[in-house]
Amino acid sequence: MTPGTYATTEGTFANSGSLTLDAQGDASAVFIFQAASTLITSAGSTMTLLNGAQACNVYWKVGSSATLGTNSTFIGRIYALTTITAESGASIQGQLLARTGAVNLNANVITNASCTTPTPTPTPTATATPTPTPVVTVKGGKLPKTSSPWYNLLALGAGLILLGTAGFASRKVLR
Amino acid sequence: MRKNPILTAVSIILITTGIASVGFAVTQIQEMRVSSSSQVLPELTALPISSNSPANSVAFIPARGDYIGSISMPALKKTLPIFQGTEDGQLKKGVGHYEGSVLPGVRDNSVLAGHRDSVFSQLGKLKLGDLLIVNTATGNYTYKVARFRIVQADDRTVIVPTKNAVLTLSTCYPFRYFGNAPKRFIVSANLIETPEVVLALGS
Hints:
Number of helices of chain A: 1
Shape of chain A: elongated
Distance between the termini of chain A: 97 Å
Helix content of chain A: 10-25%
Mean pLDDT of chain B: 82
Largest sheet of chain B: 8 strands, mixed, barrel
Number of helices of chain B: 2
Strand order of the largest sheet of chain B: 2-3-4-5-8-9-7-6
Mean pLDDT of chain A: 81
Oligomer: heterodimer
Radius of gyration of chain A: 29 Å
Largest sheet of chain A: 6 strands, parallel
Strand content of chain A: 25-35%
Structural class of chain B: alpha+beta
Largest interface: A-B, 65 and 91 residues
Strand content of chain B: 25-35%
Order of helices and strands of chain B: EHEEHEEEEEE
Strand order of the largest sheet of chain A: 1-4-7-9-11-13
């Protein structure tokens, strides 16, 4: 399959054999699968990444539950409304996220779906990108600045009033 | 006989500027208090889809400025919105989630910050054992206050990884202080209840 969004409004996504995700040379290619009801992979089914496809760019939105068959291989991040069940020996390269139900595991191997960073191409202007929330909290982070500037302005204003009043009161009489 | 005209003029300018500064500052402080206490919280329906991320892709990681949930403090009768990031823009609207920390509910240290003169003005009234309930798109998480600390503003021992799910609240201290407060008031709370399963297995 090539990059894109694949949706099934009524049915189920099922993989009973071998599914290949072909990024066609684009490492940032995204595959999105939207199943209105369930996602089911058969026992022993496999998934393969081809031509630069990355597990971090494969998303499965599941309307109810997801079941990964015995000794199957699965790639991508599952966002399921209810339960996710990975049967014995299923191997997952990605994430399993269930909203209202449980994530049932049984002798599974789950590996990270982090992207490999492509070699950056130099650009003449620097662009600011937001820092993503990390998987772990940084060590020794700097505490956020939580004072607002308006209290400083308030203090400055009060100081100026005092100074002006003092100056006004101490004017010397000219003859 | 007449008084020094230059000193008179300078004094009047100083007093006028001072009154204008105080008036503007008071207006801004008042506006910040109202906007952070009276806003209606947006509804959370699903895992956040970031409006800032390219091609509207599904993003479990919120972008800076995104609304990510709310925090309730029953002891203070307060419910406050949480936004991603701790820059001025986010702290003006509510509580900010420190981007270098995990999201609430994850087994690590999730850090939230807020202004001492608006959202976190009553943080000092919390007591040990008080509950903090965080609601995000992934569920409700109840934390129990376990520790208070007052540290220097440049302290680097607060934002550190933790073994268990901890919620850390940070605001400036002393609460009543003109200018940049030199210290931080820190509240640490431990997760005691999580009804839903969230696995954070990778980025």
